[in-house]
Every structure is written in C-alpha cells, then in structure tokens.
Specification:
This protein has about 110 residues and is mainly alpha-helical. It contains four helices and two strands; from the N terminus they run ααββαα. Helix 3 crosses helix 4. The protein is globular.
Length: about 110
C-alpha cells in the first residue's frame, strides 16, 4: 500500500495513487457524502489521507465487487470498517501476486 505521509494531496496525485481518472473522482464526490475534499481559496481540491482511503474503499466496492452506486453507498454506511479490512487484504494480495509474477518473469528469462 502506498504510504500517505502528506497532509493534503491534489486531484492529480490522488488519481495516480488510486489509478482512477480525475473525472471519476469528481463524479464520486457528487454521489458519496463521505467524500468531500477540502478546497483552497482558489477552489482546488485538497484530499486528506482519510479521503484517499474512502476512495480506495469505493474503488474496491464498485470495481472489484461490482456493486452499483446505491449499493456501494449503503455498504459504506453500514460496514465501513469491514470494507476497509477486506480492501486492505485484497490490496496486499495483489501486491504479493505482482511481486511473485516479477520473480517468475526473472526466472523464466534465465
């Protein structure tokens, strides 16, 4: 998992961290009351690490589990802690799989 060591992130940084386009992030703000990044006096979004974790949970619910917006909204309100744990486990497994695939690729090249 990416280390979130800054207090605020721009939409482009969040887009890169979550592998989601900025348009998706802006749309999700209109659909989920839990996602309301702060704004500068010029209107630029400033996402906190908590916002990024919410986005990661939404990405898991919508993309990995295939839930519709309304179902994801309900699930997030009903079971936020469980979603966070499950999403974290899935992320860790994906990272492990990626590392194992890199090792297999290196072995097969030799």
């Amino acid at each position: 998992m990416d280390s979130l060591d800054k207090h605020f992130y721009t939409i482009s940084e969040v887009s890169e961290l979550t592998e989601l386009p900025p348009s998706t992030l802006r749309f999700w703000e209109t659909q989920f009351s839990e996602l309301k990044p702060n704004r500068t006096h010029k209107g630029q979004r400033r996402y906190t690490p908590k916002d990024i974790e919410t986005i990661r949970m939404l990405r898991f619910l919508l993309h990995e589990r295939g839930l519709k917006l309304e179902a994801a909204r309900d699930e997030l309100k009903r079971n936020r802690r469980g979603i966070d744990k499950t999403a974290d486990i899935v992320r860790r497994l994906e990272e492990a799989r990626s590392q194992l695939q890199k090792l297999l690729d290196q072995i097969s090249r030799k």
